[in-house]
Amino acid sequence: MTDPSDTRDTPPRPFSPLWTYLTGVVATGLAALLTAEIRLGLGDLADLARTSLFWVLIVLVVLGELRPIVVSSSRLAGGTATSTLFTFALLLYHGLSVAVLIHALALVVSGLVHRRAWHRVLFNVSQVTLATTGAAVVLAAFGHHPHPAAPWVPEGTDIAAVALAAVAYFVVRGLLVCGAVALHERRSLPRVIRTSIGHQSLVYAALLGLAPLVVVVMSRSPALTPLFVAPLAALYFTASLSVRRDHQAMHDGLTSLPNRKLLIVRTEEALAEAREDVRVGLLLLDLDRFKEVNDTLGHPVGDRLLQIVAHRLTHSVRPGDVVARLGGDEFAVLLPTVRDATAAREVAARLRVALTEPVRLEGMTFDLDASIGIALYPDHAPDFELLLQRSDVAMYFAKEGRTGVEVYLAEKDRNSPERLNLLGDLRRAIGRGELELHYQPKVGLASGMVEGVEALLRWWHPERGPILPDDFIPLAEQSYLMRQITQYVIDTAMEQAAHWWHAGIQVPVSVNVSARDLLDATLPDLIGAGLDRLGLPPRAIQLEVTERILMTDQAYTADSVHALVELGIPLALDDFGTGYSSLVRLQRLPVCEVKIDGSFVQRLGKTVDDERIVRSIVDLVRSLGLRSVAEGVESDEVAQRLQDMGCDAAQGWRFAEPMPAGEMTDWLGERVGAPSYGRCGTRGVTAL
């Protein structure tokens, strides 16, 4: 039942608050231990060593340290060593020096057996020494000074002295330990005290209350002293059975991490203690492609992989953070205190770095990766259930966008009330004619000819005014409305293209399509029927698809893509440079145009790296026999740089902003010139 998230053996950072606290306690405790041992003469110690009782007590104290009584599965509560009973009895009978000497020996032995860090062993020795010293001071106040040469056996009239000494021992030891736990876990001291003192006070009361009886037996019949092991063993096994059941109910059986039940408890505790200047963070983590491991190598290998993941996660978070397994390959990380979303992202990045180190199992090497969603209290949710839901939403955004880490954003959440209202408004907007197309020209940089126009969807909301495409297109893509919008855009763009072509303005109209549109088997039929109805050649319409979509295996093999190619519809690769394209696949794709993403173009002349990227893309596209178009061109300087690089065409505010169909018709009408066919089989009109 070891807790994989227990990091108490991790050395504290030098000069941190925890390091300073431990150093102070250890220094004080070791000084008290040294002072107490100086008072114990070698002769007294030699006399004690000749008695069998002395060695029996050493064995009992050591065994008590090795097997503490644990009455709660909470890491804050910890366990209570049964050695406390015999140490306190030694204090009453033989005095402070003998008690702290034997208990310090037992703590060192226990530390070696359990492989505890030395800073933890030294702290335990020091806090026990200080607690025992505090009890000895109380006894001295009542005039009792036990010594090996003059043992003290309490009488009935000494109950008050013994009780107050026990209270002093419990209070000093409890406060010292709670202080260390509070600093290590980064929790408030009152909370740690409430969590741990209640569980341990009853056990301490039983152990310290039995100590005077042990003293009486030691003084009259030393051979009977080991009999106290029997009730202690019964108490130990009863408590262990209860804690084991509690642990099984609150922890995952495979990884021993907290499960959902315990995560709820820990989160509610963190929310109850949250301060105004900090946040509570919940991270939801899902392994990428883990199902492939189970399907290929079987569940036993998958289980071992999950155990490795659990180990890496627990050793990558801060002390006090909680790593839980929710089921399958899904984990959650609770940050009881976090400064802001940036700090939460740093934790998430650290987790991903820990997971990306290759794992070798069954003679194979696995490269792990994960998608992480982040939600914060009170920014995103007021309780656990909403935190979990919204971190789940953010996680799926990270998985879909392949970004690795995402923080929850209400405007992206299709389940939020605001987005649901916007979705309803969008559905009504389609029927009310609130959607319209604007058009932006693509101009040849060398010839100055208009080589095409791109259709851009616009929505004017009757109450909210203009709504940006980035605010409603992703929403539509996640709903049933995308097909209706696509059909509206294609029909409208084709009708406008027919109007221009039949008027002698023969420029192709580009339409952006989503992944769902591209893979829809009805798309070629829709376009083909429109071309026949309007008397348009296939080159009059061009489809623009983002690099992230078109470069996937599914799009590469889709029947709809091949049908579009057979129909003669030109395809353009949009936002090139933002994805992870294979050059071999790019060469084989049925595209005739590659559009360079505006984020690189707009930084031309500002950074050397972006200029190199754009130049490399232009050279690559030219070497493949394709046409390059730069997006987001806003100045003469950028246009000239692109022309010098050999870029074929550009679009942006430098040439014209997106215009409604009427204005675009007038703009094109003023620039009609001799037609010239481009590399995609398009004809142009003079632009400048």
Q: Which descriptors apply to this entry?
A:
688 residues; alpha/beta; 5-stranded mixed beta sheet; 27 helices; 18 strands; EAL_dom; transmembrane helix
Report the uncertain regions: 673-679
Number of helical elements: 27
Radius of gyration: 37 Å
**Overall residue-averaged pLDDT value:** 81
How many runs of DSSP E, i.e. beta strands? 18
Sheet of most strands: 8 strands, mixed, barrel
- End-to-end span in angstroms? 78 Å
Secondary-structure-based class equals: alpha/beta
What share of the residues does DSSP label as strand, in percent? 5-15%
The dominant shape is elongated
Helix content: 40-55%
Strand order of the largest sheet: 8-9-11-12-13-14-15-16
Describe the fold and architecture:
With 688 residues, this protein is an alpha/beta fold. 55% of the residues lie in helices and 14% in strands. It is built from 27 helices and 18 strands. An 8-stranded mixed beta barrel has the order 8-9-11-12-13-14-15-16, surrounded by 5 helices. The chain is elongated, with a radius of gyration of 37 Å. It starts with 16 loop residues before the first helix and ends with a strand. Mean pLDDT is 81; it is low at 673-679. InterPro entries: Biofilm_reg_signaling, EAL_dom, EAL_sf, GGDEF_dom, MASE9, Nucleotide_cyclase, Rev_trsase/Diguanyl_cyclase. Residues 419-672 form the EAL domain. This is Bifunctional diguanylate cyclase/phosphodiesterase. The chain crosses the membrane at residues 18-36, 48-66, 86-109, 121-142, 162-182, 202-218. Residues 278-410 form the GGDEF domain.
